[in-house]
Write a structure and sequence with these properties.
Length: 340
């Protein structure tokens, strides 16, 4: 059952709100547009009929009118926290092929493509130099008192990638409320052997933990290269489900309670811009998992929604999709699911 307009919120979704500067492999570049992982996840959740409260910390001057579309779809914005301290909300992504993103050296990519360098990107730092501190708060790091009290009364939540301390603080805060289902996508900056001892405590309260193959292999460097072995090890730390995304878009789903392994293939799609596809997957997964508590079916919904996201541009593209298209794609993909 989906949420009706005016009904209580079905979930809280927390993440980053950013201004995106995207150079796709083909097609027109998109500069200084609404982005970050939060609007992608929220749009997918809204598409499937959910109402979510959104949480992020943004600089005081962030143009919240860019979220009007989500507000019209029933999302609640009272959890967007404006802060006076500086937050670098820029995100640069250049694609050298349809699925290979690069986050560093924007000047090089603009020069290679003959595009004037935007003044808004002057002083943009290297993404690879950004790391998760185990002790020091960033200005975008979650604080205990950030969430509006009503957000603790909802039944479900998803945490997009933020940073280590945010992912340490928010699960325990949410679980202290009425949250029954809590999912989280790994932040790349802490999926590293240097955080090995911290991972168990970080994911122990989760219903589902999402990560990429690259993140899994980096965290388990020197320990394992077997993705099923990695997924099972992570599941034993607490999550009922661990979902590992492969570069081809397929998902390996490990179910700890039933000790089952599932391979959910990607839906073949024409790739225009893959930005946000993982976040779209997560928003669709959460809403559909809450419908039937069937993780395989929820992952199928996630993959077909991610495919639609890849075919267009921006977080709101998925909102214009005909429900019949999703249903037809689900029927095709469902027949291709296999157990491992």
């Amino acid at each position: 059952m989906t949420d009706l307009p005016g009904s209580p919120l079905g979930a809280v979704i927390g993440g980053r709100l950013q201004r995106d500067f995207i150079l796709p492999f083909e097609g027109k570049h998109r500069l200084n547009v609404v982005g970050g992982n939060l609007p992608y996840a929220a749009a997918a959740y809204a598409f499937w009929g959910g109402r979510a409260g959104l949480y992020a910390r943004v600089p005081n001057e962030f143009p919240l009118e860019h979220l009007d579309i989500l507000s019209q779809k029933g999302c609640d914005l009272t959890g967007i926290v404006r802060v006076r301290e500086p937050i670098d909300d820029r995100r640069f992504i250049a694609y050298t092929d349809p699925l290979s993103p690069h986050y560093d050296n924007p000047i090089t990519y603009f020069a290679e493509r003959g595009i004037p360098f935007p003044r808004e990107l002057i002083g943009y730092g290297s993404a690879s130099s950004r790391y998760c501190s185990k002790l020091e708060y960033e200005n975008f790091t979650a604080r205990v008192n950030d969430l509006p009290r009503p957000y603790l009364d909802v039944p479900a939540a998803h945490l997009c990638p933020i940073d280590y301390l945010s992912h340490k603080i928010l699960p325990s805060l949410l679980r202290a409320g009425m949250i029954e289902t809590l999912t989280m996508r790994a932040s790349a900056c802490y999926m590293d052997p240097s955080f090995w001892e911290e991972i168990r405590g970080l994911i122990s309260d989760l219903t589902a933990f999402m990560l990429t193959e690259a993140e899994a292999l980096r965290l388990f460097r020197g320990r394992s290269v077997d993705l099923w072995e990695i997924a099972e090890a992570l599941a034993h730390y607490g999550p009922e489900f661990v979902l590992v995304h492969l570069p081809d878009g397929s998902v390996r789903l490990f179910d700890r309670m039933r000790h089952k392994r599932w391979v959910i293939p990607a839906y073949p799609a024409r790739t225009a811009d893959p930005t946000g596809m993982l976040d779209v997957f997560d928003g669709a997964f959460l809403l559909n998992y809450r419908k039937k508590f069937d993780a395989v079916e929820a992952a199928l919904c996630g993959n077909v929604t991610a495919a639609v996201c890849m075919e267009g541009f921006g977080p709101y593209y998925v909102l214009d999709t005909l429900p019949g298209l999703m249903s037809a794609r689900m029927d095709v993909l469902r027949a291709r699911v296999s157990s491992a």
